[in-house]
Amino acid sequence: MKPILGTIQIFPFNFAPTGWALCNGMLLSIAQNQPLFSLIGPTYGGNGTTDFALPTLAPLGPEGPSYYIAIDGDYPTR
Predict the structure, then answer these.
(1) CB count, 10 Å around CB of 48?
(2) What is the pLDDT of residues 49-68, one digit of tens each?
(3) Whole-angstrom Cα distance, residue 77 to residue 58?
(4) I want to staple 52 with a disulfide (CB 3.0 to 4.6 A). Which of 19, 23, 24, 46 is the partner?
(5) Domain residues of the chain, as ranges?
């Protein structure tokens, strides 16, 4: 089962599972991530024309759980 696109979740390890990205402010290309951009836009940074940023959420410990955002998943329905 795919997560809902844009969901933020804590995982108890320090690597991103497939379809997820660490919430560390990384810039993503709008052209390659249009569905996610349509949900969060340039809220967390980026120029809003060619790129946008993921949220920046501090890890819960040096080697422990961290926040991840679903970058591949089902588009939420209204």
Answers:
(1) 13
(2) 999 999 999 887 777 789 99
(3) 29
(4) 46
(5) 8-70
